[in-house]
Design brief:
heterodimer; A: alpha+beta; 60s Ribosomal Protein L30, Chain: A; 3 helices; B: mainly beta; Rossmann fold; Neuraminidase; 2 domains; 5-stranded antiparallel β-sheet; globular; disordered N terminus
């Protein structure tokens, strides 16, 4: 696997991580995928479909505190974001048993600080692929 | 004279390529398949590029309903009625229930003409004679298969149809691994494969227009997803959508005037129809769950689609006039990718059971549900226009390949494996 247009792809001994952070995946306080987010996932689906390796989807939020009926905290929101990505990929015919959805809340920021850019960069999802060695 | 003809036939037989017989592997056929002997057709001209009788035998064999007699077991090789001795075909080991003989000739306008005749061996009588003319020997052969199949089964043959499919492979571009997607059209026996389009970006969800000439698909070649229509005769493409967000799963309506599709331009992925004469969109679904993979009922009055509105992907039908929605599948927690037979009675789908994806079919009249395949990761079922077979993509040794299964699950066929992953086959309508 190599660079896919605007995905950031990192590889280390644990596998390959696809970072969907550079685009506006979600609105603040929301787990609904943006149009651009859906486009990227639609494009990524056939690539991921070519293998059977497990995929861990990690959801992250920005540091803005959240407390409402739907999402009592950023933990629920980050998990909902990860699930939303999994559900979309499953709807595209990827096997559900390849996935794990994980929520990290705002505990693993990609960018420090509270600027609008930092918050946008932190509302993200990582796909961690356990590729066969 | 009989022996001279026989020798001529053997010459034809041994000089003509017999690839057609090697292409498709029947992994499971019905045990009581009808035996039929298709004797090599007489031809006195220069060597031909194709062996017509062999192609007909391969077509009938691939349907799973016929067991063609091997040529080495034929005791005589008649090419006209006067040479037919029924006792030659009545033996238990070397016999057949039906016999087909034929003669080929050239016409004045440079075409081939085939005169062929079908016999009932047990009743010792000729059933019917036909002739056909054409330039293309493979097309002519498939036509003969269609005629024989219809005569013997009462069902219209679908051997002269085509399929489109997508392949994906990794190429090495000066040390970098790059993906290459290709959209192909081919005869349903895998021959005459032709590239319609290639791209380094994904090509998805091809399907046919009811005219058997145009196709529609999703391509990312302009980096964003867009729905296109292509004329397969000349490769001309027209982009019909390129909305922000998802543009997916396009399907022509049965009258060819509208297109169902999935768009996320209003937020969530929803199903829309587009009037192709003016591009006007109509939103069909409105639900926070993902609604996808629309397909039309044969009367064009409703859309069948996959939705996870009930908590897991299941198949629903929505009536276009009333907007009324009904759930069609209840077996298991994953049923997706619906395809309906042309009579609207049988619903083929991808069904997941114990973590394995199979092709299944539901009889919408009786309500019975059958899992047809034992392979894994089966996807993208597409039904032949005569409803005899379902073609689908599956995994074989970690590669995507095409396979077909009869609607009753009794016949299973594997299509030739090739380089790269093969995906998303779509069977054409009658041409």
């Amino acid at each position: 696997m190599q660079s896919q247009g605007s995905y950031e792809i990192d590889a280390d001994e644990d596998g390959v991580t696809i970072n969907l952070a550079d685009i506006l995946l979600f609105e603040s306080g929301n787990a609904q995928l943006s149009g651009e987010g859906l486009e990227r996932l639609q494009r990524l689906a056939p690539v991921l479909k070519a293998g059977r390796y497990p995929i861990t989807v990690e959801g992250h939020t920005d540091s803005t505190p959240i407390h409402n009926d739907k999402y009592p905290s950023n933990w629920e929101l980050s998990a909902a974001r990860a699930s939303q990505v999994v559900r979309y990929l499953v709807s595209q015919g990827l096997a559900p048993d390849r996935f794990m959805a994980v929520g990290y809340a705002d505990t693993r920021p990609a960018e420090l600080g509270n600027s609008p850019q930092a918050r946008s960069a932190n509302r993200r999802v990582h796909l961690r692929l356990k590729l066969p060695q | 004279m009989k022996y001279l003809t026989t020798i001529l036939c053997w010459l034809v037989l041994f000089s003509a390529p017999a690839r057609a017989e090697l292409i498709i592997e029947i992994t499971e056929g019905i045990t009581d398949a009808t035996s039929i002997a298709i004797v090599p057709f007489a031809w006195s001209g220069p060597r031909l590029s194709e062996d017509v009788a062999a192609i007909v035998a391969a077509d009938l064999h691939r349907s799973g309903q016929f067991a063609p007699l091997e040529r080495s077991k034929m005791l005589s090789l008649p090419t006209q009625e006067s040479q037919v001795f029924f006792r030659d075909w009545q033996s238990k080991t070397n016999g057949a229930e039906y016999l087909v003989i034929g003669r080929m000739s050239g016409t004045n306008d440079g075409k081939y003409r085939v005169d062929y005749q079908l016999f009932d061996v047990y009743q010792q009588r000729s059933i019917k004679k036909w002739f056909a003319t054409g330039n293309d020997l493979r097309a002519l052969s498939h036509h003969i298969s269609d005629v024989l199949y219809q005569q013997l089964t009462g069902i219209r043959g679908a051997f002269s149809t085509k399929m489109v499919y997508v392949t994906m492979e990794y190429l090495n571009n000066s040390g970098k691994r790059v993906q290459r997607y290709r959209l192909y059209v081919a005869d349903v026996d895998g021959h005459n494969e032709r590239i319609l389009m290639e791209s380094s970006e994904p090509i998805l969800s091809p399907s046919w227009a009811p005219n058997g000439r145009h196709i529609t698909y999703v391509s990312f070649k302009s980096t964003r997803p867009a729905i296109y229509i292509m004329d397969t005769k000349n490769g001309r493409e027209k982009k019909i959508t390129g909305f922000s967000g998802l543009n997916g799963a396009p399907r022509f309506s049965p009258d060819g005037r509208s297109m169902a599709m999935v768009l996320s331009k209003d937020g969530n992925p929803e199903i829309y129809t587009m009037d192709l004469s003016n591009g006007k969109l109509k939103r069909i679904t409105n639900h926070y769950a993902i609604d996808t993979e629309p397909t039309w009922s044969p009367d064009g009055q409703s859309l069948i689609f996959t939705s996870e509105r009930g908590g897991s992907p299941q198949i629903y039908r929505q009536h276009l006039d009333s907007g009324k929605v009904e759930r069609l599948t209840f077996d298991g927690n994953y049923n997706a990718r619906p395809a309906l037979t042309p009579d609207g009675r049988f619903l083929a789908m991808v069904h997941r059971s114990n973590g394995i994806f199979h092709i299944a079919v539901k009889d919408l009249v009786r309500g019975t549900f059958n899992i047809l395949t034992e392979t894994n990761l089966d996807e993208s079922p597409s039904i032949a226009p005569n409803a005899s077979m379902i073609i689908y993509a599956t995994m074989d040794k970690n590669r995507g390949v095409l396979a077909a299964v009869s609607l009753d699950g009794r016949v299973k066929v594997k299509l030739p494996s090739r380089v790269g992953d093969v995906r998303e086959p779509a069977w054409s309508p009658f041409m």
